[in-house]
Specification:
The complex is a heterodimer of chains A (about 250) and B (about 180). Chain A has about 250 residues and is mainly β. Helix content of chain A is about 0%, strand content about 55%. Chain A is built from no helices and 23 strands. In chain B, about 35% of the residues lie in helices and about 35% in strands. Chain B contains six helices and eight strands; from the N terminus they run E-H-H-E-E-H-H-E-E-H-E-H-E-E. The chains are: A mainly beta (about 250), B alpha+beta (about 180). The interface of A and B includes residues 28, 101, 118 and 238 of A.
């Protein structure tokens, strides 16, 4: 079986959380389904259309698999960095992975648990369970659902985005979409911008960030107190004709 | 039989697109939309180096050409920073997205055409508001010239006519 990357080769002790192989896996398909499974193992095993294949390895020690309509299944060590993309194929990242990125036009994306994540979708559905670090999502007309993350940067044209819990800074941009973010930061750093969309940010009841709002014909309302002290956080909101709400979390 | 000849040039093409411009125009009217385009043009005039050129305007978007990939990337970053500065956002309340690709282009009058131009055009479609996305070819061509910037691989983009995907990267200043 042509498995790749055993015995911990490529380990980089300088990284905060090195992957088991120190390698990055890259997968690209057009319509083929992509499934990456992180599990207790030291090697990388890849199947394309049900047959085991050997990935290309470049000078940067990146493993690359390219397919068209064939499904690709990869079994990788826990914490592996993965970057995948498809036009319309479904993407599933299962288990605990490292720094991950997904680009799709219309494919559906489901992610279990990652250290950091960057998702890019024109019209697909994107769902992330947990991201312990920075999460960045850019979407057009799809629907995005995030369980938990650290720092958050999300932009949407007209998509609907829901983030249950962001523990770090929050940056939200939408043209006409709907975005709901729950923040659990003790010192929130929030920037929300929309043209005609609807943005709702829920903050902890204990916070009192500085709040600066700018609206032309839209509506910005906050039920969170402003202590006038930047050390207690900040909320910057800007809209032209949209709606931005800053609320106290219900839990 | 007419013969068509075209000069081949090597450089980096950058496409820009204003996110939300159509919605903004519908809500704010044509006059305000023209003001936004004027604000963009003024900033582009400021940051575009003399060796680069504005190839053409495409509605609210621009096509620019640079002889050097590193200069192209740095100019793109500077353009984003300038448009996001507090002194400009009143006149330019929207977001720019940009896509860059280094390769060969063919001159057709003042215009540039070709496969590598089409790739740059495809990349900008994937960029989010305020983002600069570049192809692997751009990163390779820029080399150490962009070592002062953060370059994050974000995924492949499939372009019609070529079998292999084009891998793209997001570029931004280090935090």
């Amino acid at each position: 079986v042509p498995a790749v990357g055993s015995s911990g080769e490529g380990l980089d002790g300088d990284r905060a959380e090195p992957t088991a192989t120190g390698r990055r896996l890259r997968i690209s398909t057009r319509s083929g389904r992509i499934e990456v499974i992180a599990e207790e193992r030291a090697d990388v095993l890849i199947e394309k259309a049900g047959r085991t294949v050997t990935p290309e390895v470049d000078e940067s020690d990146r493993l690359t698999i390219t397919a068209r309509s064939s499904p690709v299944v990869a079994r990788v060590p826990l914490g592996t960095d993965v970057v995948v993309g498809s036009v319309s194929g479904r993407v599933e990242l299962k288990g605990r992975l490292g720094a991950c990125g997904v680009t799709t036009v219309s494919g559906r994306v489901e992610v279990d648990a990652v250290e950091s994540f960057e998702g890019r979708s024109a019209a697909g559905r994107l769902k992330v369970g947990s991201c312990s670090g920075r999460l960045r999502v850019d979407t057009g007309t799809g629907r995005v659902s995030i369980g938990s993350c650290g720092d958050l940067a999300v932009s949407a044209v007209s998509a609907r985005v829901e983030v249950d819990e962001a523990t770090g800074s929050v940056q939200v941009r939408t043209v006409s979409g709907r975005i709901l973010v729950g923040s659990t930061a003790l010192v929130p750093r929030v920037r929300a911008e929309t043209i005609s969309g609807r943005v709702t940010i829920d903050l902890l009841a204990t916070v009192a960030p500085v709040q600066r709002f700018a609206s032309k014909s839209g509506s910005i309302r906050s039920e969170v107190p402003d202590a006038g002290d930047l050390d207690r956080g900040s909320v910057d909101a800007r809209t032209i004709s949209g709606s931005i709400r800053v609320r106290v979390r219900g839990d | 039989v007419a013969t068509v000849s075209a000069d081949i040039v090597t450089g980096t093409v950058a496409f820009t697109d204003i996110v939300g411009f159509t919605t903004f125009t519908a809500e704010e009217g044509d006059e305000r939309a023209l003001q936004v385009l004027s604000a963009q043009a003024a900033v582009v005039d400021q940051v575009l180096p003399p060796e680069a050129r504005l190839v053409k305007e495409l509605g609210d978007g621009l096509m620019m050409w640079f002889p050097d990939a590193a200069t192209a990337v740095h100019t793109a970053i500077s353009l984003q920073a300038a448009l996001a500065s507090p002194t400009v956002t009143d006149d330019f309340p929207l977001w720019l997205r940009m896509g860059l690709h280094a390769g060969e282009q063919r001159s057709r009058g003042s215009d540039l055409i070709g496969h590598d131009v089409n790739i740059a055009s495809r990349i900008v479609d994937l960029a989010g508001p305020g983002e600069v996305l570049v192809s692997q070819a751009t990163v390779d061509a820029a080399g150490d010239g962009i070592s002062d910037l953060e370059v994050v691989e974000v995924g492949p983009v499939v372009v019609k006519g070529i079998p292999d995907p084009v891998w793209i990267h997001r570029v931004e200043r280090w935090d």
